[in-house]
């Protein structure tokens, strides 16, 4: 339908006008564009969505206010326009013409454009710029199976938004977003603002610099792709300040698809899912976000007397969130913002935390208290990353105990990273590190049943930690804090770390507490910014609470001044631009890479050797020299790979098949015991390699070997590390899906790498996509090898493979996914069309954060083929005459 959209914009110079015209004219369906610089209006006529016009204006650096949307104005208004036009010939404003001369330093819009392209953009202050008035909420679901439900939900949201909106100056549109993963595609729906899935996929492929592709036939892959596409689509709408909220509906599959994308939306943006799993185990769907799951009561299957009530109530609640947030955002600059501090608490540290909160409040701080249950710590650090928290008093670090020992309220290995990376002031203590949390008494692992157990209630049992465990906690904490470059103060109470760790209480153990305090003092490297203070108090003594607050006030520069989340985000962006928070840099590699508590099963000599290798490789990268790894199937191959200067050598069973004239896939078929073959190859290769690290290709899915014992055997033979080969990553389609479904999937390879990492072995796994690389990074992989499939060149090379250009995109995606988890991981490319030095150089020159190449067939089979063939041909040229 043809519409006339009139926006109020600021157009102070010709360059601004040209930029705006160019942006809007690219829209499909535009019939006419009028720009009136003197009035500051943009008028677009045609079959084009006003939402798209606003987006284009925003991308051109323009803030816009909707003047009108709809049919052309009535005649009286046109007469008024004519009168305005009649005045134009007089040209009594020479200064207006002068304003058309572009002077960038005097043009406020150009000044804004200079800073608009930052990783995260905050809504401008309404007092100095015009805000968008039109907003959209998205109703998300699988339209191929839930169209009736989506239509009802969208209509309900629209109705409730209209009823709740008291201010007519803003408009909230309701759009349905299709995330169907089936093969049938819906292009449009009558009576609805409808976004087909092809739009989501288009934005996803554009964002990842990929060519548009058809949705995969495999449902699992299709669902994963649609979830990622939805995340990109919603993020863009949020960053453009158009998205006012998102509501979805679905069963377990739909909830999983939608929730993954919703979790990526900012805190405070309304996000709701009406779901069949809302009353079950919801942590996988919600994580540490403010996503709301609304129980559907009945299955999301049609509109009936129950679903009608549930959907309507959910729509009303969601509409209230949307309107309330818009009103709040309009008033947010009138509210004084306090500096916000995150505090961790357990029931057994409550007296300390309460005293701390009371004093902080008197000093002008707002406190956010987080229950240290694993989720609590993650939630706090998520808010630190988003800039909502400007200081942390991590009083209750009990999640570390559960992480190290195996309790049910554990953090993960990233604990403390956000606080350190964002460089916010940190005061840390050791609250409740005297205990590990379990469920009911009979749910405690049998290996712990003889330990000192305290039943907190019928659902929660606590186990006292030992001297040795406390030393491990100190290792974990110290190695995290030693990476910090901001203000950190560790406050340690000598007389007990919880209400249970006191004279006459069940967990009173002075030796264990002393071990914790002493080990932290020994391991933490103190300096002017990183201090340790030991106090002769119990953690719940008022004196200790005061000492904690005193320490925080001492290291916190802001001292309770107004400090909004937006200010914090701006500072973090500025810091990242000057390298304060490294992304792909490696200058801090040596200081940030190693944490002994991350290697609980490591022999000291193995760990030291691995660290030395990584340090040497990193030094090589810093000098601009790529890392080159090679596969070896024979002793002679390994010997001369070393002579050529290779950095790493990997032995795996396919090398033996390859050098016997068979394709590498033979290593994945039941022709021999893969792990036994590698152990046998060690006898041939290890004696002839003098200095280069040699790694074992380990079949992590081997059902007849216990990986912990087998990895010890690999270590004892003399291998420096491991790689996951044979790997199910080379399988796809139904066969791969069946492997995953029957417990023989890639996850076993991830577990093998995680075990090897904890043993201190060098880990260099293959990853075939972003998800696999992320999982391997989380498992602690040191080097990720981005695998592009079987090598294509030579007499027995594969014929089916991605192109070299496609490999650039895939390798970059794997590198990016890895570095989001571990910015220090080394990335190598391998396989497919990357079959020689020129191809490897092409990949390295067209990617970022990729550090070298790993070759197998390209390192031994192809050179042998060429050398033998060439040598024989030279002999055949000998003449007898």
UniProtKB/TrEMBL annotation:
SUPFAM superfamilies on file: HMA, heavy metal-associated domain (SSF55008), Phosphoenolpyruvate/pyruvate domain (SSF51621)
Positions of region (Disordered): 66-98
Domain HMA residue range list: 2-65
Compositionally biased intervals (Basic and acidic residues): 79-96
GO molecular function: catalytic activity; metal ion binding
PANTHER family registered for this protein in UniProt: UPF0261 DOMAIN PROTEIN (AFU_ORTHOLOGUE AFUA_1G10120)
Name of the protein this chain belongs to: ToMV susceptible protein tm-1(GCR26)
Species of origin: Rhodamnia argentea
Higher taxonomy: Eukaryota, Viridiplantae, Streptophyta, Embryophyta, Tracheophyta
Gene: LOC115736336
